Amino acid sequence: MSDTDTRDPTSLRTPIVAVLGHVDHGKTSLLDKIRGSAVIEGEAGAITQHIGATAVPLDIISTIAGDLVDPDDFDLPGLLFIDTPGHHSFTTLRSRGGALADIAILVVDVNDGFQPQTLEALDILRRSETPFIVAANKIDTVPGWNPNEDAPINDTYESQSDRVRERLDESLYEIIGNLSDEGFSADLYWRVQNFQRNVGVVPVSAMTGEGVPDLLTVMMGLSQRYMKEEMEIDVAGPGVGTVLEVKEEKGFGTTIDTVLYDGTIRSDDRIVVGGQNEPIVTDVRALLQPRPLAEIRTESRFEKVDEVSAATGIKVAAPELADAMAGAPVRVVRDRDVDEVIEEVRAELASIAVDTAEEGVVVKADTLGSLEAMADALDDAEVPIVRAEVGDVAPRDVSVASTAEDGKQKAILGFNVDTLEDAHQRAEIEDVEIFTDEVIYQLIEEYEEYVEGIEQAQQDTILDNITRPARFRILPDHTFRQNDPAVVGVEVNSGTIQNNANVVKFAGNEPDRVGQVKGIQEQGEDVDEARAGNRVSVAIDGPTVGRQIEEDDELWIEIPEKHAKILEQELASEIPGDELEALNMYLDKQRSRDPFWGK
Ligand code: GDP
Predict the structure, then answer these.
(1) 21: Cβ contacts below 8 Å, ≥ 6 apart
(2) Partners of 201 in the beta sheet?
(3) Which of 24, 441, 491, 536 has its CA 20 to 30 A from that of 412?
(4) For ligand 1, atom 22: residue with the closest CA
């Protein structure tokens, strides 16, 4: 017999399943439904509540799935569902290779279709290369739906009217189309031949349970077919896991809720945990699991266990965990060299570490994984990061942000974190902007809008202080006063005449300053400026009509060379077209004498 044949089947671990999707599309309901069905089918106790996860064993799955699943076709032990749905926990749960979840369910409301967090979840799934299926949820809300509790989709579909089927099909094809727009080739799951190439869409109702048998069947089949090798673990080996959450627990101090994805952890193990500063080396004090419901009245919600093996969720109580981070690795030392294990943890942390620049914004996130996701998204948006850390926005973050030279970078972007009260106060004093959101791309959008606002304001102030180009002509028979100042009627050909600007006249291409605008009147009223097309009277201090200037002369507002440069290089897209035309004609004249003028 070969090795393969003698392998203990328990050496195949349970695939870890995460549920993602837009808010209110039914992630929690779907998990509840699966758990609920599992409890009913298996009577009490068949499903095990882990810390942060629920294990649904194969025999329960096959009971729920009925004819769809023959347990003999499978040798994976079942599915482990992570209890907290959403991409936060998904990104937290990372392992050496990327995502910790082996497979994901993306929940999409059939009525609501693709929404911002659907896209964000897809993006995360794409980046982490996690296989997933789409649960097209809430099919029971299709008008006219005839519900069949817990039925497989084919049975319930058959019992619907043509009209209802058409409506459902339309919604499903829209979802398939949306997936395709995002670069995922998808189809209804029963049409999918190769789940590695195509995303299967499973119509379900978390309310009535319709389609849930199909969903479980597809998940099981997909894991069995494509992930069996990855599920092979050394059951007796030292455990490897990820911190899901760091929690104070009465009587136990700081504990880490951990998802173990390889090996075992024992209550007398020494472990190394990723910390804020350095890897933490500590000894397990207790391994805790939730007490079964029946015993919940006893003194503690938890019961101590001696050993657990992957895949599982477990609460680990140990000293010195205060610095542990959600998303950080946990490794059991056992008979290994502790320094080697520390190195591994350090290397893993480094691989998640975000590249920072000399200048940039401050980024805070709730977990290492989400920090990484934020960094990726900011990289795409070409926003540099000066500092990236897990944790709430604190006063010292404000101090770092306040040192930015570029006002646009005096900003803190907090993803799924709180802002401490004194950080708020500090930010007001230091003029630092704090953005927080629970959707990465909305957070980045908010920041980008802020940056645009600043840039606009900067350009507006520059424009306020810059001489605007103008070309204008003295109208015949419109000399109202000869000199001191000369007052003439003009027509503005292009650009903007502003009060106090200097006026030049070109003799050939040689500019000659003739005076300064000392008042503009339009139909007898004083105005500050005259735009292209306006006919106004202008007082020009300096020249005498008939000598330096004459009726029908073409005159220009003089543009200082520095201003011409800013206008051409930075503000060309900001100023009106006619002003740009005046500028270009002015530059042509100047540059025909001096090709480098204004460059
Ligand atoms: P989550 O934010 O994605 O976890 O969504 P929830 O599970 O909290 O569901 C949001 C709302 O949709 C709740 O009011 C649910 O009762 C409802 N809901 C979820 N799934 C279904 C479904 O399949 N059918 C119907 N009719 N309502 C559903």
Answers:
(1) 27, 85, 86, 105, 106, 107, 108, 117, 118, 121, 135
(2) 134, 188
(3) 24
(4) 138
Q: How far, in whole angstroms, is CA 197 from its chain's centroid?
A: 26
Q: How confident is the model at residue 202 (pLDDT cuts 50, 70, 90)?
A: very high
What three-state secondary structure class fits 375?
helix
Question: What angle do the packed helices 421-430 and 395-402 form, to 10 degrees?
Answer: 20
Binding site membership of 26 for ligand 1 (Cβ less than 6 Å): yes
Instruction: Return all residues near 386 (Cβ < 8 A) that are at least 6 apart.
Output: 356, 357, 358, 359, 360, 361, 362, 400, 401, 404, 409
Whether residue 41 has its Cβ less than 6 Å from ligand 1 = no
CA-based nearest residue to 54, from 17, 81, 85: 81
CB of 23 closer than 6 angstroms to any ligand 1 atom: yes
Query: pTM here?
Result: 0.69
Residue 25 beta carbon below 6 angstroms from any ligand 1 atom = yes
- DSSP strand pairing (470-481 vs 554-557): antiparallel
Query: Which pair of structure tokens corresponds to residue 462?
Result: 């520059």
Ligand 1 centroid–CA 33 distance in Å is 11
Length in residues, the chain: 599
Cα 162 off chain centre by: 41
Q: What is the pLDDT of residue 512?
A: 93
* 192 annotated among ligand-binding-site residues: no
CA distance 471 to 558: 10
pLDDT the model gives residue 514: 95
**Distances from the Cα of 95 to the Cαs of 42, 261, 313, 338, 416, in angstroms?**
31, 8, 14, 20, 21
The whole-angstrom separation of Cα 14 and Cα 310 is 7
Phi then psi for residue 418, to 5 deg, are: -100, 165
| 21-73 per-position pLDDT tens digit | 999 999 999 999 988 876 666 555 566 778 888 888 888 888 888 777 777 78
Order of strands, edge to edge, in the sheet holding 280-283?
Answer: 280-283, 270-273, 329-332, 240-249, 253-262, 312-317, 286-290, 302-305
Tokens of 598: 């204004």
Q: Are strands 270-273 and 302-305 parallel, antiparallel or unpaired?
A: unpaired
Q: Which of 323, 329, 352 is nearest to 342 (CA)?
A: 329
